[in-house]
Amino acid sequence: MKKISIVIPAHNEEDNVVLIHQRVKEVFAKLKNYTFEIIFVNDGSRDQTQAKLEQLARNFEEVKFIEFSRNFGHQPAVKAGMDLSTGNAVISMDADLQHPPELIPDMIKKWEEGFDIIYTIRTYPKQISAFKRKTSTIYYKFLSAISDVNLSEGGGSDFRLMDASVVGVVRNMNEADIFLRGLSNWMGFRRAGIRFTAGERTFGESSYDLKKMMKFAFTGITAFSVKPLYLAAYLGFIFSVFSIFGYGIYVVHSFITKTEISGWASLIMTVVFFGGLQLIIMGIIGIYLGKIFKQVKERPNYIIRSKNF
């Protein structure tokens, strides 16, 4: 019998961990040729998530838990579960039940066909705002255009299956800002996609605010490409040529008309514009320098406070 490891990060999900365990168990009750383990990763929860996980672990042998010393983030939590998994394949999914466990048999079927990575292509239900759907689509298209990975539309979900051989590659990676959505594409292997409609969060509220989403977006962009640095260089070159050309026109005009062009407002606006442009370029360089700074310190992606296996 083959073993499937289910990795579920949990941050303040006290009301959801029991439900998702029950639904996963119901799915595997119908899969007679597979055993499973559920590895919950408590990512610095401040509610009763840890107490619920310890209770589940006492009552069900398939339930494992990892408790972080603090909140390290969603991606390190997924990696921690992968690092300690023992299955022939690993499925990562969220604890809020937006990733339907009922899709697991379809993922396993694709895996048995010989694919190493089964990713999911998320579509949103009608009740999700058009703004969220549009911004998500724009982000992944922009990420694909500006980086060296190609995330298909809707394919930026952390609901995926990886063969044990792929998980072994992930274990050996020690990136300071790990971005598994991009890594699963960058590694190659044989891949297949399955579409699903995201469910609604059953309990609680998402901890992903605008600040975290923006940080996640910059992590994805800078983790797989230096194109932003080239873009900064191209902008500098273009505006330098433009300024030389514009100044030439000014000199010619002054000699022909024997007058000077006045315009303090346009001058100030030009100074402000180029000053802002320089700050943007310095910010881009600073992000990459910051990533190098964090990488060379070689601090771990996460610290485990306790676990039951």
From TrEMBL:
Signal peptide: none annotated. Residues 5-144 form the Glycosyltransferase 2-like domain. It comes from Chryseobacterium salivictor. This is Putative glycosyltransferase. The chain crosses the membrane at residues 229-252, 264-289. GO terms for molecular function: glycosyltransferase activity. Its EC number is 2.4.-.-. It comes from the Bacteria. Its main location: membrane. It is a multi-pass membrane protein. The keyword Lipid metabolism does not apply. SUPFAM superfamilies: Nucleotide-diphospho-sugar transferases (SSF53448). InterPro entries: Glyco_trans_2-like (IPR001173), Glycosyltransferase_2 (IPR050256), Nucleotide-diphossugar_trans (IPR029044). GO terms for cellular component: plasma membrane. Keywords: Glycosyltransferase, Membrane, Transferase, Transmembrane, Transmembrane helix.
